[in-house]
Amino acid sequence: MAFEYGSDTLGIKNPFKFEGLILTIRGVIVTLLGIVALLAVKDLVAQGAKEAGWLSLAIGLILLGNGVVAVGVGLFKVMRFFVGRGVPASLARNMAKSESHVRESYIAYNDKELEQMLMGRKNLTFVEPQGWLARLIHTLMPRLLFTPYPIRTTAQQLSSGLIYSILAFLCYGLAWFSGSTGLTQINDTPVLDWLSVILAVFLFLLWAGKRSPLKRVAQVSVESASTKGIVMMVAFSILSPVGLSYVHHEVFRLPELPLSASAYIITMTVLGLLAAAYGLLLTYLRATQAEPKTEVSEFRNNWQESIHPQEIFINFENIVMANRRYKEIPNRVYRDFDANLVEQGSNDKGKFSGEMIQETQPVYREVPMIPIFKSLRIVGTIAGELLLVIAAIMFYQAIEPVTLIKTAPIAALDALIYPALIWIFGRIISNTAHIFWAEMHFESLIVLFQCNGTYSESKVSTGASIHDSTRSENVVVRSSMTPWIITSRIVTSCFAESGSNNLEFYRRILEMHKADDDLDKITSEMKTFLGNRETIAGVNAKDLDSASAIYQVNQETRSLNAQAALTRDGKTELSPERIEGHMETDSKNRDITSGINDDGLDIQGR
């Protein structure tokens, strides 16, 4: 959606300024490290250390690229947060004529689902968890169900990393137990050392897959977990020592490992516990503030009014709902009205039905949180970016140990593996914090209006007397209708991003609250509209004044004519002045026949 400027802004501030500042600082530090590594290439080559020079060049380019990207992304987050009058995304397809040119990509519901939620007093956003892992997490944290999808998925990812790590240790212990009890012949063999390497590789791949929760910002559902992984892990833990023992004794002897993977395992375990604890604590604090109500306000009645059914819907859309616009922004129309008139047997009676669903412009509101939640967001952002800086520094310092890989291979491996581990968990913590920076809440009024009934037509005539000079004939439509109005104050959640689509991802309903005051005002306005209608075409005040003036002139004219007739019959002679006045009166009367002029009004005054 293109940016739509309006002088009356929505008052939404940039939520990523602090995060962008910390990211920019990290980018500057990493960029400087990359520049230093590149500047050292010339000296290393001059000293004859070409291998170190090439390595310094490669590491410098990696650090420089990562740092420049971080600076760019950080500055982008700090810059102006463009918010047009068309944000956030609609709940369903917006059918308003003023927004017909807009094509929204992220639509969370359709009009039938919104009707189902309002009618059934239920929230389709909260789906049942799928898989044993999701059910376990939701059992331990019941209110997790009422958090948005990105938060739920992040919690499940961190929990799955923690649980699968524990299972991996249990499987390793099971393998060790089978060897110590003599079930498998692994005594005096390097089988356990190889199993520890396998465990370390498994943990590395497991947590490396959790480093990008940002991709779930625009997700549609929550990821599920099955029992297949558990079964495979248990089977592998039982069969792997048997297989390695068989290979060692029957195929070829497994070589002794020059290094132990225990230090890597301990590092990943500690960092994994910290990352999971941080994310789950934030999720728990956010879930405690959830208020998953599904309440609505409802009005049902039966009215009998002299009104055409089409006018009911036109008034409701163009007057009643238009009065509820926020900052003159058009409402979101999710179901447009159609009176659907059906004639029954003749042209003067029939039935009608119609409905519409509208949402007022969502108004930004702060996400409910406690002080410790705000502090944890800041701490997580700083800690995550600090770990990334430490990983960059360690990667820069790996130039010398890697050049000595032939003489000290273990030191060279450590110099490369530890920065990778720290970088993975720094990314996990930083991205987890970003999820909670990105959440934004909006409040709006959603209205479902349905009206069904019958109508009949009849003619009404007024002014049909022989003495009446004005006549009005009207076709009166009598409608018997049953309006059904449901209103709800909804709280919706959207996850923002920096860029052109900053507030245009899926927006979902989290809370539904009663809207009794809004419903009372809506019904009052409709009753006022119906009560002030005129069934018969009448005469307004100006017409009555004109008719009164004509009546007075006609009365004066008839009086003069009667006096003239009496004078002629009695042969009364008129003076020249009376004759002249009579002629003037006649002239004025002729002028009045086509309308009321100033002279006519003067006669009335006389």
Automatic annotation (TrEMBL):
Keywords: Membrane, Transmembrane, Transmembrane helix. The chain crosses the membrane at residues 21-41, 53-76, 161-179, 191-209, 230-249, 261-285, 378-399, 405-425. Coiled coil: none annotated. Residues 568-591 have a biased composition (Basic and acidic residues). Residues 564-606 are annotated as: Disordered. This is Uncharacterized protein.
